[in-house]
Each structure stands twice: as C-alpha cells, then as structure tokens.
C-alpha cells in the first residue's frame, strides 16, 4: 500500500520538544491584553510534513488571514514557523479572546479542511480558551464523527486508518476546489461565446442568426444544465493522474452521454452544445489532470493532454466508419469526405485555438480591445481558417471553402479597428442568415479560446 504521506518521520521526543518550543514562543508573543492565535495541523502518524500537508496548512493559513480581514482585525504580529514536526502559524490581535475563539471555531467547523485545523486562542494571561467556554461541544472524530477525545483515549482507530482519512480529506478538498474553478471557467466560456455580438449566422444577444429552433435563452438553459457535468469531467481528470492521457477518454465517455441527455432535457431536444460537451469536456479533464502545478497555466501543456486523450477517437471511432455505419452528421462527413471534424481538431490539440485563437485574443486585449471585440475578431479569423463541419453540413465543402477565402481576403487588409470587425461581422451575419449558414464549429472553438484565456492568464 502506498504511504498516505511521504516525508521524514519524527519521534515522540521531537513532537514533545516542538510543543515546548511552541509554548515558549506563545509566551514571548503574548503582550498586554492582546489575544494570540496559534495554528497547526492535526496530522496522525510519524510523518508530519509532506507536500500534501504543507498545502493543507497553507490553505488554512490563508483562511485565518481572510477571517481577520473579514472582521477588520489587524494582526499586531504574525509569524510562520517551519519545523520537521509541522508548520505553525501565529497572529497577535487586540481583540477579546472569546470573540477570536468564536471566529476561529467558525473556520474549524465550516471549512472543508477544518477538521485538520488546530487553531488555539490564548488570552493575555496565556490561558487557552476552550470550546466549552463559548458554549460549543468538543470536536468530532475524523473517522467516525464521535467525540474525538473518546476515540483518541480508546484508540478506536489505527494510525493507518486515520492517515487514509486525512489524505482523503485533503485530496478531495483540493481536487474538488480545482474542479469547481474549472467548471466555473467552462460555464463562463459558454456564456461569453453566446453573448459575443455580432456573430455571423449564430445565436447572439441580437438574434438567432440562421437558427430557428434556439435563442440566447436556450443557450443559457443548456449552459446551466451542463456546468455540473464539466465539474465531474474535471474531477475525473484529477482522479486519473495514475493513468496515461490516452486512457482518459474512456473514463469520460459515460459522463459525456449523461451531459448530452441533460442538455436535451434543458433545451427541449435542441442541440446547443453537443460538440462542446466533447471538446470542452476534454479541456476540463485535461486541466484537472494537470492539477495545480505550473503546467496547469500552460495552454500548450493543456492541449497536449487533450491531443493524447482524443487520439483514440480517430483510430477507434472514425477510421472504421463506412457510409452504412455512420450515424451522426459528423460521422457521415468523415465517411464521405474524410473530414475528421471536432475529433480531428481535438486529436491535433486544437491548433486553431492554441496557435490562432488564444494568441490573437491575448494580443488584442493587451492592445485595449474588450473581450467581446476580441471575440468577434477571433471568430472571423477562425471562419477564415477552420474546416467548419457545421458550415459544410448546412451547405457543402465548396461553399465552406468559398466563405473561408472571402473572409480571409477581407482579413488581409489589416490592420483593422474593432469597429471594422463589428461592421464586417454584421454584414456577414445578414448574409449567413439569408443563406442559412452557421459556423457552429468555429463558435465552439471560440468558447475553447475563452476557456484557455480564463484558465491560463
């Protein structure tokens, strides 16, 4: 069995010496009538320091700092001590100890990692304020929830069981918080994409473009229904770091099917985000897979994981297709024209996003363009570059190529102002709506561009 924590073990004598040193420091810091907050972690077993426990400590440190800020309490002193027996934090505040204790207990009881936080409050004379003094029961056991002191005295749970519970608590909290952030970025990206106006032939704030079965509110309903599924896909990525990315898609498929069903239920059967469930789901999972390290802020690293995860779709899903076995519009296009669509884009690592959309959006925003103006410009560049299967489905490959050439010709007359891009997008919107054309694939790539922009800045 893999050890719950990796790091140097400390002896009982080292733990006792650390307590004595901490008590001496507490006495040194306490001055006048001020109250002292003393913060450590409850970590069972001989390994008190590891990258995981240090991360948990830092989360608690930030939470205490935030709690002081919330209440307008200024720390007269604050100090962090690093020792083999664990990290320690101290804050001296000129606030009555009982009020401080209530604020710290709120963290212990309400935070996702609060059961691991040991936040003592000492009054000016050095006495520790007990929970009972502010009318609260003792803390519960990490494993079973019973009064913790009783379990400790009876040794109801072994060290390995306590370590497993501790590790699970920390990893679930960190992964869950990361998945929430990823899902929020995914939702934000979907809402930004549909809100960018004007967009040729697409649903935006002014109309439905070439679509008669959906509007802005259909997209909002769909995005709201999908948010929790993107959180789950991000969590799947977090919990799949023990496998190569090439095996990630197999774990995502069923959740993707459920997401499509949720979309259909929310929209009354209208397909608003089917392609984006696949592509944005892959990006969400890749972000979870990379965790909180430096690669998580690197769009190239994210798209590399996406490419590896999507690679099996080409050999396993597309290459065996025939005209008789193809079911969806995308599969029929591949069977007839060998156009791989979103699967091919994903397996290539979405080059239109990584090499075109994201760099362009970053540059335009740095030059003072709004995100909406940059979104319009990115969309036009994508239309000029990408083999959009949605356009082909609504017309034919020749029409898609003609449109791409026409938009590319207009773009060659750069530099253009934001107003020029908006005017051209309005002109194209009228044309596309009239001709029943919709670059839905490019719209999905615009959403992915927003996703990477929000994730990696």
Explain this structure to me?
- The chain is 61% helix and 7% strand.
- The mean pLDDT is 92.
- It is of the alpha+beta class.
- Strand 2 and strand 3 form a beta hairpin.
- The protein has a four-stranded antiparallel sheet with strand order 2-3-1-4, sandwiched between helices.
- The longest helix has 37 residues, at 159-195.
- The protein has two domains: 12-157, Alpha-Beta Plaits (2-Layer Sandwich); 168-456, no CATH class.
- The chain has 17 helices and four strands.
- It has helices spanning 12-29, 51-70, 97-110, 148-154, 159-195, 216-238, 248-267, 274-290, 299-318, 329-337, 341-347, 351-366, 371-385, 389-394, 397-411, 418-435, 440-456; strands spanning 35-41, 75-83, 86-93, 117-122.
- The protein is elongated, with a radius of gyration of 28 Å.
- Helix 13 packs across helix 16 (418-435).
- It starts with 11 loop residues before the first helix and ends with a helix.
Order of helices and strands: HEHEEHEHHHHHHHHHHHHHH
Question: Considering DSSP H and I runs of 4 or more, what fraction of the residues is helical?
Answer: 55-70%
**Biggest beta-sheet profile:** 4 strands, antiparallel
Strand proportion, as a percent range, falls in: 5-15%
Number of helices: 17
Return the average pLDDT rounded to an integer: 92
**What structural class do the secondary elements suggest?**
alpha+beta
What Rg, in angstroms, do the CA atoms define?
A: 28 Å
How many β-strand stretches?
4
Low-confidence stretches: none
Instruction: Give the total of domains.
Output: 2
Apparent shape:
elongated
Distance between the termini: 39 Å
Strand order of the largest sheet: 2-3-1-4
